[in-house]
Amino acid sequence: MSKTVILRGLVGAASAVAGAVALLPGAAQAAYVCPANAFCMYKNLNATGTVSVQAALNTGASGYLEDFRNSHYSNGESLENSVSSVVNNTGGFVYLYDEWKRQGTWVVIYPHSGTTNLDNATIFPPDGNPYKGNYNDRLTSAWIVYR
Could you tell me the pTM of the whole model? Predict the structure, then answer.
């Protein structure tokens, strides 16, 4: 066998291996871990998927975000009507609303409560009679209060 044939065979085998490696799926991307003293909003349940850590809700003081239309996850998608779970590692009470400017019904996320899925939340309507329901993908504004 000539050197040319051997080299062509080796180059072909190396190309095949490289192509196969390029097609292999990568390891699953680890979920973003919400840091201490932060409030994080996630696109998916169980604090998975893309995340948003909004400055207005992470100052260590009371603050609010009145309109999620111009707020985004780390991948650029809008927060409006898309949050499925949250993590509250702050000392504040977080009120999440289904209308702009902190109006409509709301849910309360208690201080240092860890992960909360919004698919089975206690919802507080303006009339004051709370009920269990699905608040998944409904958020449009938020308010954090330190007492």
Answer: 0.78
